[in-house]
Every structure is written in C-alpha cells, then in structure tokens.
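Researcher: Structure for this, please.
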Amino acid sequence: MVSKRQFAFSAPILLVLCLLIYALAVAGYAVWSYREHKAALLAEIDSGLLQASRSLKYLLAPDFHDRALDQDSIGKEEELRNRKLVTDFGVESGFKWVYTLAEKDGAFFFSAPSVSEEEAKELDTWYFYPYEDVPDEFVRAFRENRTVYVDYTDQWGTFRSVALPQQSPGGRRYLACADREIGDIDRLLRHNLLHSAIVALYFLLAGLPFILLLVRIYRVHTADLKQLNAELRAHKDNLEIQVRERTADLRKETERLQEALANVRTLSGLIPICASCKKIRDDKGYWSQLELYIQQHSDALFSHGLCPECVEKLYPEFANADDLPPAAPGPEAPPPA
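Model: Predicted structure, token format:
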C-alpha cells in the first residue's frame, strides 16, 4: 500500500510521465500520419505511372518495337510523329518523361521518348539514344519480366519511375516507362506534418486547463499532507515524551517493589516445636525459644504481656484490675512455665 509520503514524492514524477507519454503519442501520431499520407500519395502516383506506361503502346504503330532494332531502323518522319504523340501525352498527363526502352546486346536505348524543347534543340534525333545510367531496377524488371518502381534524384530533380515489361506482336520485349517529379510530395508531406503538429498543439492547449487544475489539486493536497505530517510528528513526539515519563515511573515503582520484596522475610515449611515448652528446633538441632526463633527467621518483633487467663493464674491479686500496663517491647524472657 502506497504511503502518503510516497504519493507526495511520486506525484510530480507521474505528472512528468503523463506529459511525456502525451508527447510521445503526439509524435507517434505525426509519424503515422506522415507515413500514411506518403503511402497514399505514392499509391496514387504509382497508379498514374502504371496507367501511363500501359498506354504508350497505343500511341505507336503495333509493330514499332519489332522494327526498332538499331539506330537506322526507324525513319525520321516516324520518329518525329512518335515524339510528338508521346511528348503531348506526357505533358497532358502531368509526367516529366514517358518513353520506351529497347534492349540490344545488354544495353538499353530510348526507342520512343518524350522530348522537351531544350532537348530537341540539343540533339536532332533521340531515337535509339543510349540510356547509359539506366537504373539497376529497370534491368531487373526487363530480365525478370516484372514491374518495378524506383525513386531517384539527379541534377534535374527527384523522380519516381515505373518500368513495365511489354512485348510487341512479333515477340520482341521492351520496357514502357514513365517518370514523375515528386519533389512536391515532400512539400505536401511537410505541410501535412505541420498540420498534424498544429492539431496536436491545439489539443494540448485545450487540455491545458485540466492540467493546471490537476496541478492545483496536487499542490493543495500536498499542503494538506504536509500539515497532517507536521501534526502527526508533533503527536508522535508528545507520545514519545509520555512513554519516556511513564517508563521512568514504572522503573521507579519496579525498583521500589523489588526493594520491598528484598526486605520481606517469611517462614514456611515444617517447623518442629515442643508440645510442652513450645521451643523450636532449628536446622542444627538446637532448641530455641519461640520468640527468638521467629525473630531470627523473620523481621517480626515481640512485645510481651499477659493474657487474662495467665494474669488470673499468676497474679490473682491483679485479676480484677481493669487495665494492666502494657509491657515494654523487646526480647524479654518468657514467664516460667
């Protein structure tokens, strides 16, 4: 059972622990909310990327990738037509780049890429341009024939891409890809994190009056406990004084009784006495007068006198006297038998 002193000591710790738990709960909520929003945004982006990559084959001739075998296999007119279709589709869909990749001798080349105005000015043709820094995930997607998503950051920004393995009617495999810039996602997530922090701060401020009330109740309770402890301590000190005084009185009384008991001498046991002269035999076999024996074995003293029968027998002349003077106390010799 927790004592009042222990409660007074542990109450501040409990209050701090409650605030710490609340702060951890708020932080946990913020992290959870951040991850949930990020997962939702990425799921939405991935869905759009996948849909765009699936749509690319419908913008190209059905046998385009059967013919896209090297740099000279596609004419300039078809390349420009494909470039416009793919570029317009990417711009209208909100993607940074959409493109297909053809594989030759273990290397990858852009077969139908979207091209910005700056890139069009930089190169006259982007068909079968080598993708030298192709992500390893794209290579695995091509080899394992599975869809992969990858995030990467370069000098142009932060992007999320999809690589969708596809197969042309002639059986030639290629990758349909789409890139979307996700730098704005971090801004949205930071905004959401700030929103979560503001909500948590709002609830903290809303609960502040209750916290202050609890602090006030705790302080009042602590003051009452201190006063009660002071009263109990004073009462305890008073009891200790009374106990010491009572103990001293009992000790004195005990000493007095022990002293009185030490002075008490009693006669007990079988005492041999003469039936005629009334002498008593002691432990050594000597016979002593009754008075002397009692005086030696107790604290009793004798004062001698005569009873009425003996007065009439020994001193008949005084038999009718009303009063006889008492004999002086002391170990006088008894009258002759």
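Researcher: Any notable elements?
Model: The domain at 14-189 is CATH 3.30.450.20 (Beta-Lactamase). The chain has a mean pLDDT of 82.
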